[in-house]
Amino acid sequence: MSNLLTDLGIDCPVLAAPMAGGPSTPALVTAAARAGGLGFLAGGYKTAQALAGQIHTVEAQGVPFGVNLFVRNAVPVSPEAYRDYARRVQEEADRYGLTLTDTEPVDDDDHWADKIGLLTAHPVPWVSFTFGIPDAGTVTRLRRAGTTVLQCVTNSDEAHLAAEAGVDALIVQAPAAGGHSATLTPERPLASVSLPELVGAVRQAVRLPVVATGGIATPEDVAAARRAGADAVMVGTVLLRTDESGASAAHQAALADPAFDTTVLTRAFTGRPARALRNHFTDRYSAHAPAGYPALHHLTGQLRKAATAAGDTDRIHLWAGTGYREARAEPAARTLDRLAGRL
After folding, report:
1. How confident is the model at residue 298 (pLDDT cuts 50, 70, 90)?
2. How far apart are CA 163 and CA 262, in angstroms?
3. Number of domains in the chain
4. For the packed helices 195-205 and 219-227, what is the interaxial angle rounded to 10 degrees?
5. CA-to-CA distance for 222 and 195, rounded, in angstroms?
6. pLDDT, tens digit (0-9, with 9 covering 90-100), for 71-120
7. Partners of 318 in the beta sheet?
């Protein structure tokens, strides 16, 4: 990875993670590059046309960058379990005049073919994948186009599968990470493991460069990951309050609000395990939410949008890693410089 960073003119080993749903703006990606690092546009939940627009915006700045895509890894949910959960959550939707209980499970592939077509016809420097591993043919097409391909993994078994697919490097994610886990088996509980321990295990399992992510919030966290064998680290939550972040005002305020005093792993919002600030919704529905992605994501989507517009932090998916208290209202470059030990 060190050679890859050098080849792209990158001298800061702290990268900006892709955060789907709005936080990872072109401005944030550009700021990461200008700080000597690298940022990733979040391709998840976007059409290929919308992603192309953001790519064009960053390219116009003349900086290196990456794009992250979700790989289809659907978690089926029975119609009965889905409808039962919809009935439970309807009480929250009633506050906003929304109807959930007459819906059926929705499945999609997040515009996969269109986005791969875009990235092979219009190559970008780096592409990373999460939720699943693309087929070897797709990886080969991207690499032949000049793209460095990275795969998010959460354990050594997944690292082996990624290596077999031909990727260039791994993004090793610990369960302390905010937002969705990259696990390939989202129906199973996540193993409890520290990031340095996980990095060490993956480095022993495969001979690929490693970017470490999950709970990194201080220079000491960066140093620990590097000592464990990581070539670089990736941060997300600590950038959510920066000037360039696209996170909602309510989300940013909650990260600094003493009333939100812990994070929890939950699938209440989307049917996939994700780490968020504990709130009313996680308390009330985590125990009842079935595994079911993207069905539950679509089910609660309008409710979450309405709650965000209203600043209703009891019902917003307040994604946050365990180091969320270190997120500061400041330029992203300052956050990245501090983490890299430059301040």
Report:
1. very high
2. 35
3. 2
4. 30
5. 10
6. 999 889 999 999 999 999 999 999 999 999 777 898 999 999 999 999 99
7. none
Ramachandran bin of 9, using left for φ above 0, alpha for ψ from -120 to 50, beta for the remaining angles:
left
Average pLDDT, the chain: 95
d(CA 63, CA 77): 42
- Name the residue range of residue 137's domain: 2-72+109-237+328-339
Axis crossing angle, helix 112-121 with helix 48-59, rounded to the nearest 10: 30
The answer as to whether 12 is a domain residue is: yes
pLDDT of residue 12: 85
Pairing of strands 274-277, 232-235: unpaired
CATH number at residue 123: 3.20.20.70
In a domain, 242, yes or no: no
User: Cα dihedral sign for 210, 215, 216, 222?
Assistant: negative
Distance of CA 29 to the CA centre of its chain: 14
Q: Phi/psi at 300 (nearest 5 deg)?
A: -95, 0
Confidence of residue 3 (pLDDT cuts 50, 70, 90): low
Cβ neighbourhood burial of 301 (10 Å; 0-12, 13-18, 19+): middle
Q: What tokens were used for 236?
A: 């997300």
Q: Which residues contact 56 (CB under 8 A, 6 or more apart)?
A: none
What is the DSSP annotation of 59-119? HTTT---EEEEEPP--B---HHHHHHHHHHHHHHHGGGT---TT-------TTHHHHHHHH
Q: Average pLDDT in the 57-65 region? A: 96
pLDDT of residue 104: 85
- Max Cα-Cα span within the chain: 55
Instruction: Report the alpha-carbon distance of residue 201 to residue 50 in Å, rounded.
Output: 38
More confident residue, 189 or 288: 288
Q: How many CB atoms lie within 10 A of CB 288?
A: 12
* 160: nearest Cα among 219, 201, 113, 111: 201
118 and 175 co-located in one domain: yes
Q: What is the pLDDT of residue 5?
A: 66
Determine contact, residues 257/249, Cβ cutoff 8 Å.
no
pLDDT of the residue at 4: 60
What confidence score (pLDDT) does residue 7 get? 61
